[in-house]
């Protein structure tokens, strides 16, 4: 696979935005990969509720 050196851009299922950083795991189901921003937001929302 010659794509190995190319940074994969993924679409965050949470906010729908493309990201290429290390994904975070959603706290909703512990397996969905989301963007770091959403990962941080989920962590914060956990405290809000
Ligand atoms: Zn996101």
Written description of the protein model:
The protein is an alpha+beta fold and 49 residues long. It has one domain. Helices cover 27% and strands 16% of the residues. It is built from one helix and four strands; from the N terminus they run ββββα. It has one helix spanning 36-48; strands spanning 10-11, 18-19, 24-25, 33-34. The strands form two sheets. It has a two-stranded antiparallel sheet. It has a two-stranded antiparallel ribbon with strand order 3-4. A hairpin with a 7-residue loop joins β3 (24-25) and β4 (33-34). The longest helix has 13 residues, at 36-48. The radius of gyration is 12 Å and the shape is elongated. The N and C termini lie far apart (45 Å). The structure holds zinc ion.
Give a quick rundown of the structure.
This protein is of the alpha+beta class. The chain contains 1 helix and 4 strands. Zinc ion binds next to helix 1.
Helical amount among residues, as a percent range? 25-40%
In whole angstroms, how far apart are the ends? 45 Å
Summarize the biggest pleated sheet. Answer: 2 strands, antiparallel
Oligomer: single chain
Uncertain runs are none
Number of helices: 1
Structural class: alpha+beta
Mean pLDDT: 87
* Large-scale geometry: elongated
Total separate domains: 1
Bound molecules: zinc ion
Write down the Rg.
12 Å
């Amino acid at each position: 696979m010659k794509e190995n050196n190319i940074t994969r851009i993924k679409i965050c299922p949470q906010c729908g935005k493309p990201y290429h950083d290390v994904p975070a795991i959603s706290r909703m189901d512990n397996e969905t990969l989301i963007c770091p921003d959403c990962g941080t937001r989920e962590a914060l929302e956990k405290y809000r509720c």
